Every structure is written in structure tokens, then in C-alpha cells.
Amino acid sequence: MDSEQSFSPFLMPLAVFGGWLVPGLGYWILGHRSRSLVVFGTILALFFLGVLIGGVKVVDAPTQLTWAAIVDKPWYILQVLSGLIAVVTAVASQAATASHAHAFDIGTLYTSVAGFLNLLTIIDCGWRTAAQGAA
Amino acid sequence: MIAVCMVLLAYRPFIDPLPLWNGWFWWSLPLCAGVSVVYKCTKCDRMADVPIQSLMIFIWMMIGLVGSAAALYGLVAVMTKVAGG
């Protein structure tokens, strides 16, 4: 059974930011330890599987913060939602070269879905914090 | 055979894409499993419910994928027949 912490005004921003930084950390802060570990393991497994399938270059960050540069690499918008691991992978992938292999597309899909799922958990953390505060 | 061995020897994990030729669609299984587990983690109040609930949604996702694939296969077969005949 998960334990829950008492409500504090800083809990929601902390849980949301923590949930983005490390998948599952938001749940950990809220006291949902087992939920946190399952989310952490699953999202990181999907992310690393994506990088293993497609190569490190599947996480390819835009070089500039302009609209054209961001639209040119739209998958990174979802991938960066995985948190620190996506930023580190993007830095590591700068020296690598992109591939036209089919596995590259599958890897991109895996890492993007991992980011999207982390967004889902971040929203859930925010909702659970609000519900905890209202109770 | 020699070409396959050369590709496998040149493969660098996490740098090069996996040398996949056939059966790439099996990679939808771990993806759907991950999606179902995380989705049910957000929806279920009790973590004890997550395994059975995620298994159920995983089976439904597989039924949906296989059904879509069969429908598209049938559509392409019909369209090919219409266009050809």
C-alpha cells in the first residue's frame, strides 16, 4: 500500500518538475513508492530499448531555439518529456550520424512514446497533488 | 551468410540501428506492454490492480493492431483486384 504525504503548496511544482526530471520521481515525492518504481522502470526501459533499436541518433535535438529548427525535428518535442535522460542522450548523439534504416524509425517511436507516457504521469502527479490538497 | 555475419560484426550497440530485416513488427509487443503498464499505473488507485488491468488492455491493443492489419490487408487485396481486373 502506498503512503501519502501531507499537503504543502510547494508539493505540486516539486512533483511535476521531479516527474519530468526523472520518470516516476513525482510519484515518489507524493509517497506512491511502488507506482514510482514501476513507472521509472517501464519508461526508462522503453527509452533505452528505443536507443538500442535505432541507435543514439534517434534523439536528435534542434540546434537552435527557432520555430523552423524545432519543426524540423518534431520528435524531440516528445522525447524531451522523458527528462534528463533525453537531454543527456541528445548531447551524446551530436557526434553520431543519422540512419535511414527501418530500425531508426522504430527507435524514434519508442523514445517518443516514452516521453509521451512521462507527460501522462506528470499530469497524473499534478492531478493527484490537487486532489490531495482538496481532501 | 558472409554478408549477414559482416553486418553483425560491424554492429555497435546503442550507436548503430539494430540489423533488423524481417519480423520488425514484433517490436510492437514491448511497446504496447509498456504503454499499457504506465497507462494503468496512472488510472488504477490500487497498484495491486495494475498487472491484471494492464494485461487486459494489452490484449485489447493486440486485437486492435491485428484487426487493423487484417482490414488493411483485405483492403489492399480488394483494391489490387479492382485495379487489376
3D structure, described in words:
The complex is a heterodimer of chains A (135) and B (85). Chain A is mainly α. Chain A has one domain (11-130). Chain A contains 7 helices and no strands. Chain A has helices spanning 11-21, 25-30, 33-54, 67-72, 75-79, 84-92, 102-134. Chain A is elongated and about 50 Å long. Chain B is mainly alpha-helical and 85 residues long. Chain B is 71% helix and 0% strand. Chain B is flat. The interface between A and B is medium-sized, with 33 and 21 residues.
Compact summary:
The complex is a heterodimer of chains A (135) and B (85). Chain A is mainly α and 135 residues long.
Distance between the termini of chain A: 19 Å
Helix fraction of chain A by DSSP (H/I, runs of at least 4) = 55-70%
Mean pLDDT of chain A, as a whole number?
A: 90
Q: Strand fraction band of chain B?
A: under 5%
The gross shape of chain A turns out to be elongated
Fraction of residues in β-strands of chain A:
under 5%
Q: What would the keywords be for this entry?
A:
heterodimer, A: 135 residues, mainly alpha, 7 helices, B: 85 residues, 3 helices, 71% helix
Task: Walk me through the topology.
The complex is a heterodimer of chains A (135) and B (85).
Chain A: H1 11-21, H2 25-30, H3 33-54, H4 67-72, H5 75-79, H6 84-92, H7 102-134
Chain B: H1 2-10, H2 28-43, H3 50-84
Helix pairs in contact in B: 2-3
